[in-house]
Design brief:
- The protein has strands at about 1-5, 10-20, 35-45, 50-60, 70-80, 85-95, 110-120, 125-135, 140-145, 150-165, 165-175.
- By secondary structure, the protein is mainly β.
- An 11-stranded antiparallel β-sheet has the order 1-2-3-4-5-6-7-8-9-10-11, with no helix packed on it.
- A hairpin with a 7-residue loop joins strand 4 (about 50-60) and strand 5 (about 70-80).
- It is globular, with a radius of gyration of 18 Å.
Length: about 180
C-alpha cells in the first residue's frame, strides 16, 4: 500500500495458489489447480467514509483438461463507520471480462454486497456480509479477524453459498503480512 496523503492511498497486490490433486501427487504431470490474482486499487477516506475501487485480474488453471479461466473484475465499495465499534459495508462488483463457462448471462456479471462489521476490541473484528449476484445466486459470509501486531493479521471465514440452485459451504483460514 502506498499512501499519497491522509485521504488517498494506492494498493498493488498479488496472490497465488497452487494445489495438486492428491491421487496424482508425485506424477510427472500437473493435474491440480493454479490461481493467480493481481489487484490494483485506490482508497479514499473522508472521516467515517471510506470508498475503495479495485480492479482484479484472475487466471484460474485447472490443468490440461481445459483452457484457463481469465476474468477481470471492477469492484466499488463503501464503508461507513457508525461508531468506533460498528461499520456498515456496501459494494458493487462488475465483471468486465468473463468466461462463458462461468458467466452465462449478463446478470451473472453483476453482484451487490451489503454487511456490517463489529469491533469488540481494537485488535478483533467480526464481519457478516450478504452478496447477491443479479442472476439469483447468493452467498452469506461470516468472519473473524484479529490483528496479531502492526504487520500481521489472522482470519477465519465461513461462506454459505447458493449457486445454480445448489447449496455449498467454504471455510477459509489465513493470514496476511503487510510490507512497507
Amino acid at each position: 500500500r502506498y499512501t499519497i496523503n491522509e485521504q488517498h492511498s494506492l494498493r498493488l497486490q498479488h496472490d497465488g495458489v497452487v494445489a495438486d490433486e492428491p491421487e496424482t501427487q508425485g506424477d510427472m504431470a500437473f493435474h491440480g489447480f493454479r490461481r493467480n490474482t493481481t489487484l490494483v486499487g485506490h482508497t479514499y477516506t473522508d472521516g467515517p467514509l471510506t470508498l475503495d475501487t479495485t480492479f482484479a485480474h484472475t487466471e484460474d488453471d485447472e490443468g490440461a483438461e481445459a483452457p484457463p479461466f481469465i476474468t477481470d473484475v471492477l469492484n466499488v465499495g463503501a464503508e461507513y463507520g457508525l461508531t468506533a465499534k460498528w461499520t456498515l459495508i456496501a459494494g458493487q462488483e462488475v465483471v468486465v471480462r468473463g468466461d462463458n463457462r462461468l458467466h452465462e448471462s449478463t446478470s451473472d456479471l453483476l453482484a451487490t454486497t451489503v454487511g456490517a462489521r463489529y469491533r469488540p476490541t481494537t485488535e478483533v473484528s467480526i464481519e457478516g456480509t450478504e452478496t447477491v449476484r443479479w442472476s439469483g445466486d447468493n452467498a452469506t459470509q461470516i468472519g473473524l479477524r484479529t490483528e496479531v501486531d502492526d504487520r500481521h493479521t489472522v482470519y477465519v471465514n465461513e461462506r454459505f453459498a447458493q449457486q445454480d440452485g445448489k447449496p455449498g459451504a467454504t471455510s477459509v483460514v489465513g493470514g496476511e503480512e503487510r510490507w512497507g
